[in-house]
Design goal:
The chain is of the alpha/beta class and 290 residues long. It has nine helices and twelve strands. It comes from Neolamprologus brichardi.
């Protein structure tokens, strides 16, 4: 019985002989999904139909490694000992793409990956391939948006719902759950379904660079948690005040990211437009600050 390492070598040689890079269509950009994000699969053939990005071949079949222009590797799925990273020599034309959408405080640093990647795929504006969680775009015409009827006041989707509380929320229940609340601590998803986000962390000015100043509540606007709680209770009783948080919907709407297909399609689009060599040798400093 062959050991796993020998299997990997034979697998690599088969790919080299059968698929060699010179046999590939030069008009097609191949992107390999090395690790499915959180183990969740998705249809990788949507680049043209959903995002108007043509000439892409997105696959998770590792036999295509040797001819892949880019290899997308999801940080949260990398083993601490890096044993599940590609064991093969990286072709000179190929770019490894670090994909991650967690905040630095919720993400473990992994020794050994500081100088491993060529490109970053992230929500940050200074990422090589920027994919925000959402954005506010102009509506096609003036809209009379009416938020859905509410039967609950506040939804903290991370804690009140989720595995930590024994209340796992399925994908199909996620948006109806958020929409049934007046207020939540998420951002683009609540804005899209007619719920007011309560935010913290970055300053109000930072948030206003991306969303309307009258579409959200920032905790820094209040001197104490009690003052914030009193204001939320007031909103619950004053419909006129509450509806002011949706006036922006007359002229704008929310564009949400398509997880995860959009990310790999945008990676392919980047690779099609950028053939130059690129290395990223400061991942720890860039993302964790040290």
């Amino acid at each position: 019985m062959l050991c796993p390492a020998v299997h990997e070598i034979m697998f690599f040689l088969f790919g080299l002989l059968f698929l060699g890079h010179n046999m590939s269509d030069k008009n097609v950009t191949t992107v390999l999904i090395w690790l499915w994000p959180f183990g969740k699969t998705y249809d990788p053939s949507l680049c043209s139909s959903l995002f108007n990005i043509d000439g892409c071949f997105i696959t998770a079949d590792r036999k295509h490694y040797i001819k892949s222009d880019g290899v997308v590797i999801h940080h949260r799925d990398i083993s601490p000992d890096l044993s599940n990273l590609p064991p093969f020599k990286q072709p000179s034309f190929q770019k490894w793409i670090w994909m991650n959408f967690e905040s630095p405080s919720h993400l473990s640093q992994l020794p050994g990956i500081e100088n491993l990647f060529n490109l970053t795929l992230n929500y940050r504006q200074d990422a090589d391939i920027e994919v925000p969680y959402g954005s506010i775009v102009a509506a096609e015409g003036e809209e009379d948006f009416v938020p859905p009827s509410k039967n609950k006041l506040i939804c903290w989707i991370i804690h009140a719902y989720g595995q930590a509380f024994g209340k796992y929320t399925s994908d199909q229940d996620y948006f109806p759950t958020i929409a049934s609340y007046d207020i939540t601590e998420k951002l683009y998803n609540p804005l899209s379904v007619g719920t007011v986000p309560v935010v913290l962390g970055p300053s109000r000015k930072n948030y206003e660079n991306f969303i309307s100043r009258d579409s959200f509540i920032h905790v820094d606007d209040f001197s104490s948690p009690k003052e914030l709680a009193d204001y939320l209770l007031l909103l619950d009783k004053n419909e006129e005040m509450y509806l002011r948080y949706f006036e922006w919907r007359q002229h704008f709407k929310v564009k949400k990211a398509y997880f995860w297909a959009e990310h790999t399609c945008l990676a392919c689009d980047y690779l099609r437009r950028h053939k130059e060599y690129k290395a990223f040798n400061s991942l720890d400093k860039w993302y964790w600050g040290g």
